[in-house]
TrEMBL record:
This is Glycosyltransferase family 1 protein. The keyword Transferase applies. Residues 167-325 form the Glycosyl transferase family domain. It holds the Pfam family Glycos_transf_1. InterPro entries: Glyco_trans_1. GO terms for molecular function: glycosyltransferase activity. Keywords: Transferase. The keyword Glycoprotein does not apply. It comes from the Bacteria.
Length: 346
């Protein structure tokens, strides 16, 4: 009998760098560290639609052979996996069923889907990334909610390892999926505008991350017209994020998604001592402390993004003074701190 069974999007050995896959792998690896690999059984939901019968059988066997079941589907998958595992649990009352939510979208989904809400109310535990989600789900009547913020197993820099940007051009970066909804084009246009205003290259913008397939053609056209101070730098190995980011002045996170949860890229930035400029998604203030670890501007108000960039160019020491607070903030999202609380429920 296994202690834990995990059903999640592992990506079928593909190098997928979306938040769903990354967090699924992170949680599974941390559980293996804590309990031992021999105590865990996993099934990969990647591509399940190609062979749903096979996945149903695997899911049933997971329920048979494991004491605790953890599911980690995204919103579309949740509509399938939550009812499926809830059905299996009716035959195994002694098993515990948990759902780890990745991102901040669940309250909005359940508000529109009362039947799914009724199913999730009967799970043993639902783990969510933000206090805002706890509040919203409580209003919907769910009382089985626990706080499990996003986290990373990272080597947080020591204060004497911090790198300070003291001279122009100041290096900015984005570090997420490369897709319009992550605000990539907002970042590009803002940097172009500021360099025009100052009539020199006051900012450099480097774009990191996996390009979404649906955005590839659009992004390639944009890239053809990049000025010399904007570059696409490709994907970064998980273990190299801090070393890459520590060289930058600020991370830009101009997301168009209101329900981001706690983005892993901001944890990466903090571990490298890098402040963040972000649009005000619905949980932004839970991770970014205004004027201490970064700057938050009104959601999708790109003129405010430009105004912040103008101010930090005028007063770079103000932003550099945030670095130590970013390191301190990173410790709140360390794997050791977060997983220690998580396993108490298993």
């Amino acid at each position: 009998m296994y202690k834990i069974g995990v059903c999640g999007h592992f990506g079928n050995e593909k190098n997928l760098l979306n938040g769903q896959t990354i967090k699924t792998k992170l949680i599974t690896e941390e559980l293996k560290r804590h309990f031992g690999s021999h105590k865990l059984k996993t099934i990969d939901s990647h591509g399940w639609k190609r062979n749903p019968i096979k996945l149903i059988i695997k899911s049933f066997l997971l329920m048979v052979n494991c004491q605790n079941i953890i599911i980690m589907p995204a919103n579309n998958g949740l509509k399938v996996f939550a009812p499926l595992f809830f059905l299996f649990k009716k035959f195994f009352n002694n098993k515990k069923l948990h759902y780890v939510v990745i991102g901040g979208w669940l309250p909005e989904l359940l508000e529109k889907n009362p039947s799914l809400k009724n199913i999730l109310q009967k799970f043993d535990t639902i783990f969510v990334e933000t206090y805002k989600m706890i509040e919203d789900l409580d209003k919907l009547g769910l009382k089985n909610i626990e706080y499990l913020p996003n986290f990373k197993r990272l080597e947080i820099l020591e204060e004497n390892e911090l790198e300070y940007n003291l001279e122009e051009p100041y290096k900015l970066c984005t570090f997420s999926r490369v897709i319009k909804e992550k605000g990539i084009e907002d970042a590009i246009e803002a940097v172009k505008k500021l360099n025009r205003i100052f009539d020199r290259e006051i900012f450099i913008l480097d774009i990191y991350g996996q390009i979404d397939e649906k955005y590839m053609e659009r992004f390639e056209k944009l890239e053809e017209n990049f000025p010399s101070y904007i570059s696409y730098k490709g994907m970064v190995n998980f273990n190299d994020t801090v070393d890459i980011l520590k060289k930058y002045f600020v991370l830009l996170f101009p997301t168009h998604f209101r329900t981001e949860g706690i983005p892993g890229t901001i944890i990466d930035a903090y571990a490298a001592g890098i402040p963040v400029i972000a649009s005000n998604w619905n949980s932004a203030e839970e991770i970014i402390i205004q004027d201490q670890t970064g700057y938050i501007y009104n959601f999708m108000q790109t003129t405010e993004l430009e105004e912040i960039l103008y101010q930090i160019a005028k007063e770079p020491l103000r932003t550099n003074s945030m670095k130590k607070k970013c390191l301190k903030r990173a410790k709140q999202y360390s794997s050791k701190k977060v997983i220690g609380e998580f396993v108490k429920h298993l």
